[in-house]
Design a protein that fits this description.
Blueprint lengths: L52 H10 L5 H11 L14 H11 L5 E8 L4 E7 L5 E9 L2 E5 L3 E3 L14 E4 L2 H16 L19 E4 L9 H12 L13 E5 L3 H8 L6 E5 L5 H7 L8 H15 L3 E7 L7 H12 L6 E7 L13 H13 L26
Helix pairs in contact: 1-2, 4-5, 6-8, 9-10
Bound molecules: S-adenosyl-L-homocysteine.
The site of S-adenosyl-L-homocysteine has 16 residues, from β8 and β10.
């Protein structure tokens, strides 16, 4: 094939985004409906992971127990991953069940789990106390274990290519419902349920080392609980999980005021912006929230995040055949990023996880390569992201929690 006839160089059509096989809810003006507020729903009972260690102590004292029980309980939950009173032999037998009932109400009930990649990827489907369903995906890589967590049941951002958005927003998850996904994953790893055992019988990582808020939901639309969950993750044991903030990635469609607030938190979290198009014409249709905050505003906020935290920002870009993968878009993206400085950002293209037979198809490999080549030629570090768990609908944007 000569250069001119390759898919990357042919002049290619412009496919416009539209929902296929489902109808996008619209607002009074006919635009895709955005739900920023969670419907008013009861939250689960307060759980130890909703509280700081000081708050746990106060609550136990209120319940008539000594404050130091809070530390014991926290150790069971955050270090031994247990909520089973029978395992808590350092608590008086007469009080164990009462304390656990009041401090560790069950939050996640496992409905199903699917395994792939030789058992090194597990997708969990959880039922919450009110019947809402959420998913998380656990992935072992050499030297690290990543958990993709959900921050909401459903999502109100209504992106036409994303499985989660199709049913709208059910409700925000509580802080403890977010944290408990990590504890449940750690428990599964400790029980030897995640593949990837080394030849000597040990594991590279005996617990989750990296969190990505790339499961169901828009984390920045559930800001307060997101931040509390992050605080539990980074608090040293036994108050929390003792994880590194740098290994926690918050990903957003681009809620600009919340991005700026996150930047001001003084936490070295990793930040990812789901851009998917460098031009407003396309992004208006691909990411409905672009109606509120345009590409340039989202990029300015991302740049502000870098300035405040010194953390290099990730730009997420799902490559969709003939929709957003044109060479000129790679060039425009590089131009907009370089206009805001050098060394502050990198791009993570990811082949779209396709819906078969629809306009939502991943770009051809040569088009993908050309897109990356152009970004790199412009000096933008670029890494193609993997699509782990595709076979079990556990890959990016495939989490729909259908039973
Ligand atoms: N609401 C947040 C986090 C959840 S989605 C956000 O949008 O960033 C996590 C990532 O998966 C986002 O970058 C999202 O755009 C991407 N995604 C959604 N559907 C996808 C699909 N079908 N293929 C590939 N990535 C997808």
């Amino acid at each position: 094939m000569t250069e001119h006839t390759t898919a990357a160089h042919r002049s290619r059509p412009q496919v416009r985004p539209k929902a296929e096989g489902w109808t996008q809810a619209t607002d009074a003006g006919g635009r895709p409906l955005l739900q920023f507020q969670s419907p008013r729903r009861t939250q689960p009972e307060t759980h130890l992971a909703d509280l700081t260690l000081a708050e746990r102590k106060a609550k136990l004292v209120e319940l008539g127990y000594p404050a130091f029980r809070a530390t014991q309980l926290s150790t069971h939950y955050f270090e031994h991953y247990t909520s089973d009173p029978d395992e808590m032999t350092d608590l008086p037998a007469s009080a164990r069940h009462d304390i656990v009932e009041k401090m560790l109400p069950p939050l996640l009930t496992e409905v199903r789990r699917l395994r792939t990649d030789k058992g090194e990827t597990i997708k969990f489907l959880w039922r919450l106390f009110d019947g809402a369903l959420v998913e998380s995906v656990l992935m072992r890589y050499p030297g690290r274990v990543t958990l993709c967590v959900s921050s909401q049941a459903g999502c109100g951002m209504n992106c036409p290519f994303c499985a989660t958005g199709q049913a709208g927003l059910t409700r925000n998850l509580s802080t403890a419902e977010i944290v408990d996904q990590v504890v449940a994953a750690n428990r599964a790893i400790a029980n030897g349920e995640l593949g990837g055992l080394r030849k000597d019988g040990g594991f590279d990582s005996p617990r989750v080392t990296n969190i990505v808020f790339m499961g169901m939901g828009e984390p920045l639309a559930n800001y307060k609980r997101l931040m509390n969950a992050v605080r539990r993750m980074v608090a040293p044991a036994p108050e929390g999980l003792g994880m590194s903030a740098r290994h926690i990635t918050v990903s957003t469609v681009g809620l600009v005021p919340a991005i700026r607030k996150l930047a001001d938190e003084d936490l070295p979290l990793t930040f990812a912006l789901s851009l998917h198009a460098p031009d407003d014409t396309l992004r208006d249709e691909l990411i409905p929230v672009n109606d509120h905050w345009k590409v340039d505003e989202a990029l300015d906020a991302a740049r502000y995040y870098f300035e405040k935290t010194g953390r290099r920002v990730s730009i997420e870009y799902a490559l969709i055949k003939d929709m957003n993968d044109h060479a000129w878009r790679a060039d425009l993206l590089a131009e907009k990023l370089n206009a805001r400085g050098r060394g502050w950002v990198h791009v993570n293209p990811i082949p779209l996880n396709p819906t078969p037979g629809s306009i939502w198809t991943s770009s051809e490999p040569e088009v993908t390569n050309e897109f990356i080549r152009r970004l790199e030629a412009a000096g933008i570090p670029t890494t193609l992201r993997d699509t782990r768990g595709k076979e079990i609908d556990g890959a990016c944007g495939q989490l729909a929690a259908a039973e």
